[in-house]
């Protein structure tokens, strides 16, 4: 399951479904939830820094902890006038990210959900990390919803 595509696709699907009932999940706010779901994967920047010979793995690994991700969401929300709403949307994205990561088959030990209170890791071992069929299904559903929204706006 390629991380970023599936995280963004699932967030898009969830936000479009929630928009039916709740107006807060409009397109601009959906993009904030998408940013929130990518915050824990700041750790992936290690691939870029490693190319330049800089080892940042030990430092960036902390961003994949829920506590550090919440701090980052708080820092990002400071750039907006509606800080509480933005923080809530970013946190919603974080929750979706960690729920999806919990479904993965354990490779790196799982997720430290309650760090620093507990060093216990959690994982449900449901989906293989290299399962591309799930990615195709999620992206197909997200594309169908997007095209449906586009068609509805164009002919409304």
Architecture overview:
The protein has 156 residues and is an all-alpha fold. Helix content is 60%, strand content 0%. It is built from seven helices and no strands. Helix 1 packs antiparallel against helix 2, helix 2 packs across helix 6 and helix 5 (66-77) packs antiparallel against helix 6 (83-102). The longest helix is centred in the last third of the chain and has 23 residues, at 132-154. It is globular. The mean pLDDT is 91.
In short:
The protein has 7 helices and no strands. With 156 residues, the chain is mainly alpha-helical.
**What is the strand content?**
under 5%
DSSP strand count: 0
Total helices: the number is 7
Class by SSE composition: mainly alpha
Q: Report how far apart the termini are.
A: 36 Å
Question: What characterizes the major β-sheet?
Answer: none
Query: Average pLDDT across residues?
Result: 91
Fraction of residues in H or I helices: 55-70%
User: Rounded to an integer, what's the Rg over CA atoms?
Assistant: 17 Å
Features:
0% strand, 7 helices, mainly alpha, 156 residues, single chain
List the topology elements.
Elements: H1 3-19, H2 27-38, H3 46-51, H4 57-60, H5 66-77, H6 83-102, H7 132-154
